[in-house]
Amino acid sequence: MSKAVIISGSPNASSRLNGLIQYVEQQLSDFNISVELITVASLPPEDLIYTNFSSPAIVAANQLVAEADAVIIASPVYKASYTGVLKTFIDLIPEKGFAGKVIAPLFIGGSSAHLLSMDYSLKPVASALGARIFASGVYAIDKQIERTTSDDGQFLFNVQEELKDRLHATAAEIAEELRLRSK
């Protein structure tokens, strides 16, 4: 079974990005791809800030990346780029840590003005880590995801159909690339 890891760079548990992540996670599972999630904001802050490569939490997260066939890098867009939280973790991924993996960005912002942030801010850094195989990314706008709260306080996300179609297409592209590579 192929493996994917989703790296979430959102510092906010109520972020609409979580709706995208949940949807893609389900789509990949439907394609028989095992999915793990790294929520960077839940990693020890001191280990991230002080680049503690030997931290057990960082070692475990990097092991998930190392074992993955595909890496989905998910982030809200702040100031025309992915979050600083995400960058602190990316800096801890070993050199060539993305080599041989299918990489797909999953970004969300307040408007389409920062659509190119996937190409101009993430791809050069991912390439420096050895990424050469990029699947189509998805850039979403906040208003495409309705956020509500359940009676027990859990965040619920309703993704618009057009966005679901694009997320499904990206998951299908990842699944097909992994299928072709396993032959």
Automatic annotation (TrEMBL):
Name of the molecule in the record: FMN reductase (NADPH)
One GO BP annotation of this record: alkanesulfonate catabolic process
Entry keywords, A to Z: Flavoprotein, FMN, Oxidoreductase
Enzyme Commission number, as recorded: 1.5.1.38
GO MF annotation terms: FMN reductase (NADPH) activity
UniProt enzyme class: oxidoreductase
SUPFAM superfamilies per UniProt: Flavoproteins (SSF52218)
Cross-referenced Pfam families: FMN_red
Name of the encoding gene: ssuE
Domain NADPH-dependent FMN reductase-like stretches: 3-144
